[in-house]
Design a protein that fits this description.
alpha/beta, 5-stranded parallel beta sheet, 3-stranded antiparallel beta sheet, binds 2'-deoxycytidine-5'-monophosphate
């Protein structure tokens, strides 16, 4: 696999995009970028500073004060997000952020801000990025695009188990409601809505183990890389 490529992974909330992206990046020696973490960190800033997201001027001023960086955590081998030099990787997973993030991510100025940084990160290739618009807007020329889906009940159960581990008062109903609402807002916003790119390969992982899923996708990566080597 000589050619470093860009791998774009999109799909609904809690389909296991980040699990796959992380494992792929580790296996290939690529960088993994969680684009959702950027929207979550911006949302955290907005919540902390009581920004009125209906006021474009306030949002623009906030964006001018936001600096986002990813740093690799050597012990987990995962890139963690820093908001103005503070590691917010854990805070951005809170339900309070999840409840607001889709509204923030629908704002044109917020998307322009995040997309510009994401494009820069892909300059050197050798990157796996997951999100909602990576194959359509951020990297329309990505060599491999994957659109992930999974049975909604499987997705709710997965996300519930993740959140319950840190917050035992959370209910299955709350998680279900949040996922449905986010998928609706993410798919119906005006700017870069969640869509399957025409040239994306669909991966339904409802009945796949992590190992099976990884093997399948590594096969696609090998295929794409060898096509590039031949051309
Ligand atoms: O992947 P995630 O659940 O952490 O993403 C959080 C939210 O960010 C999601 O509800 C929609 C938004 N998002 C987006 O609009 N575009 C992306 N490329 C990634 C995430």
């Amino acid at each position: 696999m000589r050619h470093k490529i860009i791998i774009a992974i999109d799909g609904y909330s809690s389909c296991g995009k980040s699990t796959l992206a992380k494992e792929l990046a580790a296996k290939l020696g690529y960088q993994y970028i969680d684009s959702g973490a950027m929207y979550r960190a911006i949302t955290l800033y907005i919540l902390r500073n009581n920004i009125d997201i209906k006021e474009t001027g306030e949002v623009m001023d906030a964006l001018a004060n936001i600096h986002l960086n990813f740093h690799l955590n050597e012990s987990t081998n995962k890139s963690e997000i820093f908001l103005n030099d503070e590691n917010v990787e854990h805070q951005i997973r809170d339900m309070i952020v999840a409840e607001k993030v889709s509204d923030v991510a629908a704002i044109r100025e917020v998307r322009a801000f995040a997309t510009a940084q994401q494009k820069k990160l892909g300059k050197k290739k050798g990157i796996v990025m997951d999100g909602r618009d990576i194959g359509t807007t951020v990297f329309p020329d990505a060599e491999l695009k994957i659109f992930m889906t999974a049975d909604p009940a499987v997705r709710v159960k997965r996300r519930f188990e993740e959140l319950y581990a840190v917050n035992p008062s959370i209910t299955l109903e709350e998680v279900k409601h949040n996922l449905e609402l986010r998928d609706y807002i993410d798919s119906n916003r005006d700017v870069s809505p969640l869509r399957q790119a025409e040239d994306a390969i669909v991966l339904d992982n409802s009945g796949l183990t992590r190992e099976e899923q990884l093997e399948k996708v590594l096969g696609w990566v090998r295929e794409r890389s060898s096509q590039l080597t031949e051309s």
